[in-house]
Amino acid sequence: MLRTRICDLLKIDHPVVLGGMASGTNPALVAAVTGCGGLGILGVTFMTPEQQRADAGRIRELTRGPFGLNHLLAFATEDRYAATLEARPRVVSTAWAWADQDLRPYFDRAHEAGALVMHMVSTVPEAVRAVGAGADIVVAQGTEGGGHVGWISTLPLVPQVVRAIEPVPVLAAGGIADGAGLAAALALGAEGVLIGTRFLATPEAPVPAGYKQAILASDGHNTLLTEVADIAFGLVWPGAMSRVARNRFVERWAGREWEVRQRRHEVARQLRAARERDDAEELNLQMGQAAGLITEIAPAARIVREIVAQAEQIIRDRLPSLLAD
Ligand SMILES: Cc1cc2nc3c(=O)[nH]c(=O)nc-3n(C[C@H](O)[C@H](O)[C@H](O)COP(=O)(O)O)c2cc1C
């Protein structure tokens, strides 16, 4: 069985983590990933304290295993962060802090609440900064990932981060959706993977059916980086653009960001309405290039099991067979 240091640290069976997607996770998905031996993380950035309490309670009804709660630090508020700590998750997962935001108080408070801190970065200096502030695990996320990403790919980013912060364990994220991706991440020096897009194409994921179908339909070539939806929702990100599928909504607004700023309430209303009526051409379809690897909607637990089994098979059979005597 595949075991890495992250399995021991998190007390999980498989080195596979569900990314804490604010717009793509719910208790059912988190519990499904945790329940089959991975680590589920719930995105709670925009949840009220009451919602967080209810969702953490629901996860505990569904599984006895460890789980994480995720905050996008650029948008963290005191009441919501305090509610996260009160919920006593095994992992406090964080990402996207402002350059001048002090990480130390967030991480210290998480440790005092008995949690491990997992921080996601998209550059080497961010990784060094996170470890300096006390992070226990660093997620190195490449630009091919879904949602908000930086500018360097997973393949060159992960080994650089591993080297820079050794012996702190690193998870690879961005572009991983199958066992070959997990095996590759381990070869790069990561202790496991954190996955977003693959887990959106599950029955459990709380995104519209048309969104899931758009992931299946994508060959991975039709994504681009844009700020259009962020501008409409009034969210200024610390240096990140969002990787989304090119659809009618993006075609209409990309390059006309000034006009989105001018009409942002109207555009935000249209995006929410598109979600209500499940219109994939008018939705903000955050997804990564790994969509090209995804061909079916499958239960999250099966995805975890298949990724691990494929990775084991590659490591056990294919790779040794390549070594000449
Ligand atoms: C719809 C969507 C929403 C996301 N929201 C968050 C979030 O709230 N917090 C976070 O740390 N990462 C978020 N991410 C990034 C994921 O945690 C993960 O790093 C990324 O999906 C990895 O790339 P992949 O999509 O190729 O697996 C999001 C990703 C997607 C696709």
TrEMBL record:
<dbReference type="Pfam" id="PF03060">
    <property type="entry name" value="NMO"/>
</dbReference>
<dbReference type="InterPro" id="IPR004136">
    <property type="entry name" value="NMO"/>
</dbReference>
<keyword id="KW-0503">Monooxygenase</keyword>
<keyword id="KW-0285">Flavoprotein</keyword>
<keyword id="KW-0288">FMN</keyword>
<protein>
    <submittedName>
        <fullName>Nitronate monooxygenase</fullName>
    </submittedName>
</protein>
<dbReference type="InterPro" id="IPR013785">
    <property type="entry name" value="Aldolase_TIM"/>
</dbReference>
<keyword id="KW-0560">Oxidoreductase</keyword>
<dbReference type="GO" id="GO:0018580">
    <property type="term" value="F:nitronate monooxygenase activity"/>
</dbReference>
